[in-house]
């Protein structure tokens, strides 16, 4: 079975903006994305949550599209839009009927050139972001678990270890001057990639990109904080109180091999062996067989989309009558088994078929039932910004399909070690007694 | 000084000529046993998506126990006459497939997707789940325990608590009033009851099989015939439920969650089903009010006032009686202010015609996002699923956009007057009563409940 090959064309504008076009004629819909190589890892110290707050500001007004105009123009063209902030990138994207392509590019160019916002906009979006944090984290059972709980326990470099959604005091301290400085430093054509996917003729796409983006001045190469972590020599543990939920929760995260290192592909398949749905070893063992856990999920979140330290994280909700110690011990037994016995050729074959199927689904699929081609856009953007090679989208799969059982076992031995992991215990306040070991290690 | 925004529209690139929207052919068929089949080709990637749904869900069995249809669906994937649970899960992986089984108020469904090279074995597995589920005792005990924890956990989610209370208020004695079983009810589930639901609901005469993706209709229909033709079973009798009474007058229902740092608002009133002639009008009216990012509600309470992150309104298309709802999770000190704006925007739509330009924008939005269903296999599946479930006319997809484009300001005003029943909207607030009770009383008689559903003094 030959893997589908995506048609890709690319061009670098004179200001350093890479333009990647992936045309097809499935539907009269075009998806546009602009990715900037700046995420919450690199936001300034004392300004936790700023990269995300800033993302909101990008919808608040540019030189020729004042507040509300950007959103209104996309929606009234028949399209949808959004943005999101990740560890190492921030994206802005639209899917529109293809007759609106010129308009979308004009809007993205307008806000790449000039951000025109005021204190009232900042105060408004600060309020909106606080409600976002409340609805997703502070007022929800297991809110932010483990994506906000894990970094301060697992990492020592502030870039990796701080609160990405932001402490409210830091959000309050953010000023309009911060907004403009951040924009000037990172929101440069030479620190971004423009993606156009779907119903577009490449020559038309390049010509529109040239027309709207080419005269945006490049800037000095942005400074990048080094996200490297000091060596870890022992397991790290931390505790967080669960305010609403009824079950004790545990998250166990192992630091991954560096992106595109020899062990990276093996780790991807090892992750699937452990976390791939109900057939995954962790779910099968802890939920179906031993029935220690009520639910387990997790794994590597977005293996292609990070460019610094990242983890494979297992999330476990366990029965209150089982202790945290016993739960971790049962988890460890699963890890130990794969380290000692490895996996069979048959299991690896199953994993590769599923991996291939999931990869194809990503090439085509949307996000949350909207935004066609979000997956392909994201892959092309990350391969452009991190690897300088969007074509990887057509070859990256091969490395995963070549992994051997021996490599999976070797990755398990090398990376699934206690001194390469961190554990967060999040127990409901009224169940604290069941988490016996809690006392000794408040991190 | 800022340049005047009034100058900007001239610079905005005009839309170029619209490219044609061509919905792919739906190949329809029906087996002798009554199973309806719809196949749509989409060769963007070598995968396909499918759904086998049955026209019976919780409402059909609510006289027995709430949640019984969902528990039955959960058990369907845990074992068959031929395969144990572990085998099912590993076989799915071997086919590069995902599968889920679930039930809602009106349907039970097995949804799946996988590599097209394994379409036939995946259909064979789906067939086994639909016909030969074995309801293993040990799996049942495990799933029931999980369900118990799940129903407990749901009572800690503000969104769930709000939805549950609104349904109770709007639907009274109708089956739609119950969205979840209690712990006691889950503990009382019996395998025999699930098997009865399975026998009654999972029949070919009660079902439809939808397949979208990289498949060739003739070949896949031959596979379907081979796999499903020997299945038999009649359509179950649908129990009749009396129409729910419309609540009169605004009332406020506060679900008290001590320590909540935000308030979940959910307001609602009865509306219509998808088969109703006013459906398209209501869809556009909702979109303009609070369905889109660029809607009046979002622009008001998010972009102008900063009260909330994700306010939205929606029309909930249940099969027997639909409802309209508005939701927003807001700062505790602006609950009254948010409700005031929610009702202000409703009343404005009821009182004043929508300006032509704003209406044109809303029409474009709705017709544009409708066509996006074309772009992905699961988008297509969702559109043809809507048509099949609601037994809409064959040309529904092709004519929808024209129907939206024909709507006028008068249509919207009339629709808002009919279905945005401002005076009789029921208001649910999930939050800490000590922070919001005085604000709540401004909007109607107040009833207070705890998260378990007990009335508080």
What keyword list fits this structure?
heterodimer; A: 443 residues; Cytochrome Bc1 Complex, Chain A, domain 1; six-stranded mixed β-sheet; five-stranded mixed β-sheet; 17% strand; disordered C terminus; B: 457 residues; alpha+beta; 2 domains; seven-stranded mixed β-sheet; 17 helices; 43% helix; 18% strand
Report on the structure:
The complex is a heterodimer of chains A (443) and B (457). By secondary structure, chain A is an alpha+beta fold. Chain A folds into two domains: 205 residues, Metalloenzyme, LuxS/M16 peptidase-like (Cytochrome Bc1 Complex, Chain A, domain 1), CATH 3.30.830.10; 206 residues, Cytochrome Bc1 Complex, Chain A, domain 1 (2-Layer Sandwich), CATH 3.30.830. In chain A, 40% of the residues lie in helices and 17% in strands. In chain A, strand 4 and strand 5 form a beta hairpin. In chain A, helix 1 packs across helix 4 and helix 12 crosses helix 16. The C terminus of chain A is likely disordered. With 457 residues, chain B is an alpha+beta fold. Chain B folds into two domains: 202 residues, Cytochrome Bc1 Complex, Chain A, domain 1 (2-Layer Sandwich); 206 residues, Cytochrome Bc1 Complex, Chain A, domain 1 (2-Layer Sandwich). In chain B, the strands form two sheets. Chain B has a seven-stranded mixed beta sheet, sandwiched between helices. The N terminus of chain B is likely disordered. At the A-B interface, helix 2, strand 5, helix 3, helix 4 and helix 11 of A face helix 3, strand 5, helix 5, helix 11 and helix 13 of B.
């Amino acid at each position: 079975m030959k893997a589908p090959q995506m048609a890709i064309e690319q061009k670098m504008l004179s200001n350093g903006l890479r333009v990647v076009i992936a045309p097809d004629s499935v539907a009269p819909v075009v998806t546009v994305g602009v990715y900037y190589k700046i995420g919450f890892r690199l936001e300034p110290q004392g300004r936790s949550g700023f990269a995300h707050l800033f993302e909101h500001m990008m919808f608040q007004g540019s030189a020729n599209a004042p507040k509300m105009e950007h959103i209104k123009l996309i929606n009234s063209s028949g399209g949808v839009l959004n943005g999101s902030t990740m560890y190492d990138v921030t994206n802005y994207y639209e899917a529109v009927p293809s007759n609106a392509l010129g308009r979308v590019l004009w809007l993205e160019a307008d806000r790449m050139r000039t951000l025109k916002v005021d204190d009232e906009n900042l105060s408004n979006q600060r309020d909106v972001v606080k409600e976002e944090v409340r609805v997703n984290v502070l007022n929800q059972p297991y809110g932010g678990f483990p994506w906000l709980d894990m970094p301060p326990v697992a990492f020592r470099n502030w870039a990796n270890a701080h609160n990405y959604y932001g402490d409210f005091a830091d959000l309050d301290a953010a000023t309009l001057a911060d907004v403009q400085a951040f924009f000037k430093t990172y929101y440069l054509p030479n620190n971004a990639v423009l993606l156009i996917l779907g119903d577009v003729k490449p020559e038309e796409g390049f010509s529109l990109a040239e027309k709207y983006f080419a005269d945006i001045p490049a800037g000095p190469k942005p400074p990048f904080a080094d996200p490297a972590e000091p060596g870890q020599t022992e397991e790290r543990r931390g505790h967080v109180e669960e305010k609403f939920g009824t079950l004790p929760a545990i998250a166990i995260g192992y630091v991954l091999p560096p992106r595109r290192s020899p062990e990276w592909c093996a780790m991807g398949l090892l992750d699937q062996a452990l976390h791939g749905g109900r057939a995954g070893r962790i779910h099968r063992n802890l939920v179906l067989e031993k029935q220690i856990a009520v639910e387990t999920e997790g794994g590597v979140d977005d293996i292609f989309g990070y460019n610094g330290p990242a983890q494979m994280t297992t999330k476990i909700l366990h029965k209150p009558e089982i202790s945290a110690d016993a739960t971790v011990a049962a988890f460890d037994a699963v890890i130990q088994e794969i380290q000692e016995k490895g996996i069979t050729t048959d299991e690896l074959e199953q994993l590769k078929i599923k991996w291939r199927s999931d990869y194809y689904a990503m090439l085509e699929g949307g996000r949350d039932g909207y935004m066609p081609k979000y997956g392909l856009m994201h892959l092309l953007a990350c391969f452009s910004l991190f690897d300088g090679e969007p074509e990887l989208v057509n070859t990256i799969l091969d490395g995963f399909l070549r992994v051997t059982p021996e490599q999976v076992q070797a990755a398990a031995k090398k990376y699934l070690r206690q001194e390469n992991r961190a554990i967060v215990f999040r127990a409901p306040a009224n169940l604290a007694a069941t988490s016996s070991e809690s006392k000794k290690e408040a991190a | 000084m800022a340049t005047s925004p009034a100058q900007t529209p001239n610079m905005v690139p005009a839309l170029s000529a619209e490219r044609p929207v061509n919905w792919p052919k739906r190949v329809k068929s029906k087996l002798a046993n009554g199973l309806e089949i719809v196949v749509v080709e989409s060769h963007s990637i070598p995968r396909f998506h499918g759904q086998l749904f049955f026209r019976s869900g919780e409402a059909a069995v609510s006289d027995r126990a709430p949640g019984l249809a969902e528990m039955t669906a959960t058990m369907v994937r845990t074992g068959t006459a031929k395969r144990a649970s572990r085998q099912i899960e590993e076989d799915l992986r071997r086919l590069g497939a995902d599968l889920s089984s679930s039930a809602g108020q009106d349907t039970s469904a097995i949804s799946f997707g996988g590599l097209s090279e394994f379409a036939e074995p995946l259909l064979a597995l789906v067939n086994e789940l639909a016909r030969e589920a074995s309801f293993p005792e040990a799996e049942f005990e495990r799933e029931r325990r999980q369900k118990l924890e799940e129903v407990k956990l749901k009572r800690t989610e503000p969104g769930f608590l709000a939805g549950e209370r609104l349904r109770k208020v709007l639907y009274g004695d109708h089956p739609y009033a119950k969205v979840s079983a209690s712990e006691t009810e889950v503990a009382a589930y019996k395998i025999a009851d699930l098997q009865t639901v399975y026998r009654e609901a999972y029949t070919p005469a009660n079902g439809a099989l939808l397949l979208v993706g990289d498949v060739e209709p003739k070949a896949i229909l031959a596979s379907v015939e081979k796999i499903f033709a020997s299945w038999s079973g009649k359509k179950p009798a649908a129990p009749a439920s009396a129409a729910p009474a419309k609540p009169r007058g605004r009332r406020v229902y506060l679900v008290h969650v001590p320590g909540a740092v935000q308030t979940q608002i959910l307001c609602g009133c009865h509306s219509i089903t998808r088969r109703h002639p006013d459906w398209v009008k209501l869809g556009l009216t909702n979109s303009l009010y609070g369905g889109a990012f660029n809607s009046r509600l979002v622009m008001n309470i998010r972009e102008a006032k900063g009260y909330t992150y994700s306010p939205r309104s929606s029309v909930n298309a249940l099969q027997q009686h639909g409802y309209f709802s508005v939701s927003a999770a807001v700062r505790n000190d602006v609950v009254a202010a948010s409700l005031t704006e929610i009702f202000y925007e409703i009343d404005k739509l009821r009182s004043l015609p929508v300006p032509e330009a704003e209406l044109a924008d809303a029409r474009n939005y709705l017709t544009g996002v409708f066509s996006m269903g074309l772009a992905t296999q699961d988008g297509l599946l969702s559109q043809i699923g809507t048509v099949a479930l609601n037994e809409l006319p064959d040309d529904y997809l092709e004519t929808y956009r024209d129907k939206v484009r024909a709507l006028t300001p008068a249509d919207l005003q009339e629709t808002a007057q009919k279905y945005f029943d401002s005076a009789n909207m029921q208001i649910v607030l999930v939050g800490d009563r000590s922070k919001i009770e005085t604000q709540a009383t401004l909007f109607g008689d107040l009833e207070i409940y705890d998260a378990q559903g007990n009335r508080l003094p």
